[in-house]
Amino acid sequence: MNSFNENFSDKNKALDQHSKEYKEFNVKKNWSHWLQVTTLCIIKFLITAIAAWLFWECNAKSNLILRVLMLGIVISFPEFYILYYAIYRTYLGNKCPI
């Protein structure tokens, strides 16, 4: 029975040491960090909204189920869709089939 108490005590010491390390790592961020994070989130949202709008307008004649499935992919990778749109639709001159 005594060995059980010793093992339990050793585990508690290990947990206490882990929580001390976690508390030391938890650093409070200053306001400029949160400003950068907020700005990045806003820019990411705008890029996603623009890519979704471009995709939805350009594929107006497609099947609704296919449009919704492809919209999920476009929302997941909006930067790639905007690059595709810029190169294929704008630079190469392939207009949307509206």
Give a topology summary:
Blueprint: H1 2-25, H2 31-58, H3 64-76, H4 78-91
Helix pairs in contact: 2-3, 2-4
Folded structure, characterized:
The chain is mainly α. The protein has a domain at about 30-90. The protein has 4 helices and no strands. The protein has helices at about 1-25, 30-60, 65-75, 80-90. Helix 2 (about 30-60) runs antiparallel to helix 3 (about 65-75) and helix 2 (about 30-60) crosses helix 4 (about 80-90). The longest helix is centred in the middle third of the chain and has 28 residues, at about 30-60. The protein is elongated and about 55 Å long. The mean pLDDT is about 85. Keywords: Membrane, Transmembrane, Transmembrane helix.
The separation of the N and C termini measures: 80 Å
State the major sheet.
none
Query: What oligomeric state best describes the polypeptide chains here?
Result: single chain
Following the backbone from N to C, one meets helices and strands in this order, namely HHHH
Question: How many beta-strand segments?
Answer: 0
Task: List low-confidence stretches.
Answer: none
Helix percent reads over 70%
Give the CA-based shape.
elongated
Question: What is the strand content?
Answer: under 5%
Radius of gyration: 26 Å
Instruction: Give the number of helices.
Output: 4
Structural class: mainly alpha
**pLDDT averaged over residues:** 84
